Amino acid sequence: MAKRGETRETILQAATKAFFENGFEKTSVKMILEEAHIVTGSFYHFFPSKEDLFEAVVEAFLQQYAQRVRSILDDEALDAKQIAEKVLEELKTSGEKYYTELQGDKLHWTIQLALHEMTLQAMEEPLTRALSRLKENEKIKSCLDVDDKTLARILIKGSEAVIHHEDNTGAEWFRSEKLNDNLIRFWNRIIEV
């Protein structure tokens, strides 16, 4: 017999696969049950609804994203330019996954907004730490006279504006060279290596 944690994880894995392949609307609880090889009662023991399960899948997706960003920003072997390139690449990769795997453009706007805010918040604390470390070691300087947390917020919110200007969205936009060039130019104007 599977342990409680194993059953919940099995449901999450099956749901992730189903949601990513079919999208939220086209995924049924029955599909998830069949993929996980569990009975209905086990599903509802852990998740009151499909919406609650979807939130758990999204939370796991964001935790993985946050961990990838933290590992880049906490890597002291990387210089400022490498950090910026890797963080921007992660933003682009995650944005593309959001549209291709999560089918983000088909989600309700409230879920889109919550995901968006959670993604930005996941970056703030590790980026602030990285900026502090790099400034302390005189590896970077900013053209702005602001504290490191504010500088991190400016870089995050500015990147958000560059990414979403004129409603440019979708997986193709996240793969575009124009987006990459614009993000690099923006970061290079705010922080000097």
Largest sheet, described in full? Answer: 2 strands, antiparallel
Cα distance, first to last residue?
A: 56 Å
CATH topology of the largest domain: Tetracycline Repressor, domain 2
C-alpha Rg (nearest Å): 19 Å
Helix content: over 70%
How many beta strands in the DSSP annotation? 2
Sequence of strands across the biggest β-sheet? 1-2
Q: How many domains would you count in the coordinates? A: 2
Computed structural class: mainly alpha
Note the beta-strand portion: under 5%
Protein name: Transcriptional regulator, TetR family
Record the SSE blueprint.
Layout: H1 4-22, H2 29-36, H3 40-46, H4 50-73, H5 80-100, H6 109-136, E1 141-142, H7 148-164, H8 171-175, H9 177-190, E2 191-192
Antiparallel strand pairs: 1-2
Helix pairs in contact: 1-2, 1-4, 4-5, 4-6, 5-9, 6-7, 7-9
Put the structure in a nutshell.
It comes from Aristaeella lactis. The protein is mainly alpha-helical and 193 residues long.
Q: Could you explain the architecture of this structure?
A:
This protein starts with a helix and ends with a strand. It folds into two domains: 43 residues, Homeodomain-like (Arc Repressor Mutant, subunit A), CATH 1.10.10; 142 residues, Tetracycline Repressor, domain 2. α4 runs antiparallel to α5. Strands 1-2 form a two-stranded antiparallel ribbon. It is mainly alpha-helical and 193 residues long.
Q: Tags for this entry?
A:
two-stranded antiparallel sheet, Tetracycline Repressor, domain 2, 9 helices, mainly alpha, 193 residues
